[in-house]
Amino acid sequence: MDDPAFWHRLQFAFTIVYHYLFPQLTMGLGPIIVFWKWRALRTGDARYADAARFFTRIFGINFAVGVLTGIPMEFQLGTNWSAFSRYAGGVVGQTLAMEGMFAFFLESAFVATLVFGESRLSPRQHFLSAVAVAVGSWLSGYFIITANAFMQHPVGYAIGSDGTLQLSDFWAFLLNPWAVKQYAHNMTAALVTGSFVVAAVGAFYALRGAHPAQSRLYLRTGVALGLVSALVVAFPTGDLQAKMVAKHQPVALAAMEGRFDSGPQAEITVIGQPNVRTHRLDNPIRIPGALSFLAYGTFHAEVRGLESFPEDTWPTNIELLYYAFHVMAGLGTIFIGLMGLSALLLFLDRLQTFRPLLWALMMAFPFPFIATTAGWMTAELGRQPWLVYNLFRTAHGFSPKVSSGNTIFTLIGFAGLYFLLGVLYLFMVGREIAHGPAAPHASEPSAGEGSHAG
Questions:
Q1: For range 136-156, the mean pLDDT
Q2: What is the domain extent for residue 319?
Q3: Which residues contact 97 (CB under 8 A, 6 or more apart)?
Q4: What's the domain count of the chain?
Q5: Dihedral pair phi/psi, residue 72, rounded to 5°
Q6: What is the structure's pLDDT at 123?
Q7: pLDDT at residue 444 greater than cutoff 60
Q8: Could you tell me how many helices (H) and strands (E) the chain has, helices first?
Q9: Could you tell me which residue, 183 or 2, shows the higher pLDDT?
Q10: Residues 196 and 246 placed together within one structural domain of the fold
Q11: Which residue of 14, 106, 272, 383 pairs with 281 in a disulfide if CB–CB is 3.0 to 4.6 A?
Q12: Integer angstrom CA distances of residue 293 from 22, 237, 266, 302, 366
């Protein structure tokens, strides 16, 4: 196991997977809080103000932990991936710097006023603080995704005299078609995460018979947004992202489906186990023609298999890539079914009392986190063996002077610190949920009180 590249990759994978558990929730909750505060301003209904106030506290905890876990990744680009930083820093450094200078500063400047400033600001000013925080978090997401999209589909660059990449067309880089489609897919997935968390809290209160007005509001908002966003994650955003992969990374598409042979009317694999050694898929259950249609818009399109590509360009872990993709796609399908059934019972005014589905909603909240993690694993594993697709290999990007021992030592340190941080986070969020909305006034609508609380 004395392979420095493996340990550098494992450490970065661990820190970024752990970190992204938190930004996806802040990006998902931000628009929901804005919506509730807008409704409180428009209607004077205190329930919306109470809901926004309660989830703002959870947002604040989540934001703080997200910042703490995000800082090490910035340093890792220099400490663990110095060769990559020298090679591509002239391009990807642009949006990483913009994320810090503009988006993160905007979000962090207003998050304190959102969490602590309600009593010092007018309702309209506090609403604008919520808008600024949500815009900052979503803008931050775009800058980070633009940097990642360049690694997936490099555009707007030139190769300098020293062999490193330089930015030649800023707008082509910033408006990379891969970035636009990936951003739409990613941010809609963040809304799925936020809506599932809101619905889970509503289901928890409904099962306990606590905070009935707030519980109904959480269920209504979480289920409605959850259904819409789960559908949009699948189509059109997921469909557009799949077509980008088919066009620009066909070897990744083949690995994602465990497809070794080329041919028309390509099947989508529902279940199967990739056997890379024998170049086949064991025990497959397939839908004929579906992959050809989804990738190229016609059932008769030919989809290339792995055997049509040089083996040194295959993704380096086909099995993990295959399972990550299928976990993501499978959970996405389950999300649509769960939220569709919940929306039906919500329409029939039976969701609040149908305990089996309330239990399902409450227990489902971790699965969007798993799905987004699997989705990012699909994107990153599919890009391998390249750090910058078709330009710079992962094996050439790590810091050669940082030994495996040093990397393992810091990985153990991160694991220990993040475990303690995770326990503290769960305690603080659990305490807020146990405490409840704690409105200073009745849960029923009250125009005067709602206007004051907005």
A1: 97
A2: 181-402
A3: none
A4: 2
A5: -60, -30
A6: 94
A7: no
A8: 17, 6
A9: 183
A10: yes
A11: 272
A12: 35, 16, 8, 10, 32
Distances (CA, A) of 405 to 13, 73, 408: 17, 19, 5
Tokens of 151: 């690694």
**Residue 447: is its pLDDT beyond 60?**
no
| CA nearest neighbour of 444 among 222, 152, 211 | 211
User: Where does residue 116 fall: left (phi above 0), alpha (psi -120 to 50 degrees), or beta otherwise?
Assistant: alpha
Length of the chain, in residues: 454
Burial of 89 (0-12, 13-18, 19+ CB in 10 A): middle
The three-class DSSP label of residue 351 is helix
3-state secondary structure of 45: coil
SS3 101: helix
Tokens describing residue 352: 């609040």
Residue 22 sits at the vertex; the CA angle it makes with 16 and 25, to the nearest 5 degrees, is 135
How far is the first Cα of the chain from the last one, in angstroms, to the nearest whole number? Answer: 57
Q: Are residues 390 and 242 in the same domain?
A: yes
Residue for token pair 């990379």:
176
What would the pLDDT profile of 390-418 be if each residue is shown by its tens digit? Answer: 999 999 999 999 999 999 999 999 999 99
Residue with tokens 């989809």: 303
Neighbour-count burial of 353, counting CB atoms closer than 10 A to its CB (0-12 exposed, 13-18 middle, 19+ buried): exposed
Tell me: do 227 and 375 sit in the same domain: yes
Structural domain includes residue 6: no
Two tokens, residue 289: 């023609």
Average pLDDT over residues 90-105: 90
